[in-house]
Amino acid sequence: MEISSMFHSIMALSSPLFSSSSSPFSFPTSSRKRPNIHKFKLQSSTSAATKITTDSIPRTEAGEFQNVLTDYVSPNSSNQFPVSRNDRQSAILQIQESSDLGSALPRLGETLKVQDMNVILRYFGKLSRRQELSQVFDWMQQNQKINVASYSSYVKLMGKSLSSVEALVMYKSIKDRSTKINVSVCNALLSCLVKNGKSESSLKLFTQMKRDGLVPDAVTYSTLLAGCAKVKDGYSKALELVQELMSNGLLMDSVTYGSLLSVCASHKECNEAEKYFQKMKAEGQSPNVYHYSSLLNAYSVDGNYEKAEALIEEMRSAGLVLNKVVYTTLLKVYVKGGFFEKSKELLKELEAFGYAKDEMPFCLLMDGLVKSGLLLEAKSVFDEMMGKHVKTDGYSYSIMISAFCRSGLLEDAKKLASEFEEKYDKYDVVILNAMLSAYCRAGEIENVMSMMKKMDDSAISPDWNTFNILIRYFCKEKLYLLAYRTMQDMHRKGHQPEEGLCSSLIYYLGKTDAHSEAFSVYNMLRYSKRTISKSLHEKILHILIAGRLLKDAYVVVKDNAGFISRPAIKRFAVNFMRSGNVNLINDVMKAMHSSGHRIDQVASLGKQRSQVQPEKTRPIAKQCDVLSVSNRRNTNIQNGFIQVSEF
Predict the structure, then answer these.
(1) All residues at 6 or more sequence positions from 368 whose CB lies less than 8 Å from its CB, including other chains
(2) What domain of life does the native source organism fall in (predicted)?
């Protein structure tokens, strides 16, 4: 269920890649005319952007295109005759200036080589014209004018505009094995996944790439290490990558160390960060500002300001210039340690250097004050920031709105939310969640609807917090079916709901006779790969019995008999014998017997039912006669059938 569906339900209820130097490679030209070869008049560029031609060859850099020659050798070239260099340059310029690539590419592209198409590809990429870039790449794929550099260029130039799904589809479409395991192509794809927040997927794909024959380089490992900063157990995975890197005979460079320090800081491994920082210096590598700021970030975990200040002095002694990132990270250290006076003094320094033109430094201080219970001081910092007309993206508002809500100051929260709506027309999921929470707590359904509509109109995807806010609100307003549909959508989008929230919703759905919906919520928890409360099994059993969903109740008993009380199981068995599926009665008795329950009363009920439906239940009646003497005999059930043996 999208946000729009919820809304209606409520109503119802990078750097340049090219050098400007001339190409060191020579191209064959034809001095005499050949049939079927079109001569294109060289046209001067009317575009403000500099045209890229075959005279512009990419620099060879680490992680870029390692073999420039691949750009100029095409095993799939469809050209039957060589075309002069001037003709190719003219065709390139016409395609770059064309307003209709759909016709220009078939008309002119056939005369060009792969390296020429790569030049066009990079031209559109440099201008950030993603639509044309994608169109050219698709044509190159369809017409087999493509090579290693084409794939790696396309992925890098598309940046975050290329989704992880699109990148994976492109990669799987590569038929040539050598291209598929080329380190430049693989590095570009792995980097795309990491930048799109799919670090877990990048690690899994890396394993598959190695099986296929990839020989990773230092860039590969640095890329994957950067992703480890954002995944669960990222530090242990980072150590595995470092060990693998070294076992492959590769050395850790400054980029690798930088990524590793970032991982340590993200996973609160302060001591390990210090160890790698010292190891890096011992190997003769000079730390740069990025390395120092990563270690500073590690110190912010426990607010170790003494080590942080010593590190700042070391940076100054090394002749490094302290930039905005360093000062902001130091502020984070002071705030985390609760040194608010030092924080305020440093904030003034940031303002003096021109590093506090946006809200982030103020937000760090406000957030620390709020978490320390100093709400009035936080509001004072917020008012000071507003008075100085500091640029805000709404994060400062979200901090204060959430703080007011937690303190029960709903009127203040609503006032601030309304102020943001009036002043700004820019939203993200964080500020919308804060405003949504304020209106939900105040019980203002019209404003809740308005926030949901804004989220839908702005194409902002709800996150885990959004769903939790809405489900709790719908339960509070007794809109239990709407809360259920919201939880369904939450589950479909891969968010795992809290057990406490699920348990409450199960209870309310059961009270309103929505028995099957309650069982659906129970199954969301059951299959969420987490241990759930034992009492929840009995709770859902009573709801299913009340709703006469006895087949589902049997599944609960069969799988969780050890966690359900004897009275509850007896109640289930009695109800099942009276009105359950006849074909499952034997299975029910087996489940009861396996759990150690006495079944004489159940047997009696089963025998009574056999008199009502004799043709279907005659075998069961015979078994019930056997069970009636269970106190004098040892009853075993094997393979779903009752067997009796004398003591």
Answers:
(1) 335, 336, 338, 340, 343
(2) Eukaryota
